[in-house]
Specification:
The chain has 125 residues and is mostly helical. It has a domain of 64 residues. The protein is built from 5 helices and no strands.
């Protein structure tokens, strides 16, 4: 959090608590439109590319349930923040999250018929 505050101070930005009236839009920040985001989600992904994305996820994310991923990512921030690099890294994390979500959804759909059979079985006497 201190790194973010120092970056804001160097760039002359104030926190929302300091002054809502003084906030101005960041000119270099480009937010993708809803349509662009929808297109990204609907693009078919090559299974090999999907596996490579999943394999690129750090092992620490799979270590245990109490892992604090936000704290981990904040600790990895360099002392000098670069907006372009942050956006690229954010996009990488989004691709990883999308690949994992797709894999989980595929596994659920794959196992659904077995689940339905078990649930629909008559009670054993």
């Amino acid at each position: 959090m201190q790194k973010i505050k120092s970056l804001m101070a160097r760039q002359g930005l104030k926190s929302p608590q300091e002054s809502m009236a003084d906030l101005c839009p960041v000119e270099n920040l480009r937010i993708p439109s809803t349509e662009e985001l929808r297109e990204l989600r609907q693009q078919p992904i090559d299974p090999q590319a999907e596996q490579e994305i999943i394999d690129s996820i750090e092992e620490v994310y799979f270590s245990n349930d109490s892992f604090d991923m936000v704290q981990h990512e904040l600790e990895k921030l360099p002392p000098e923040l670069n907006l372009q690099e942050l956006e690229e890294y954010r996009d990488k994390l989004k691709r990883q999250q999308a690949a994992v979500s797709k894999r989980v959804a595929d596994l659920i759909l794959e196992k659904q018929p077995s689940y339905v059979k078990i649930v629909m079985l008559p009670p054993q006497a």
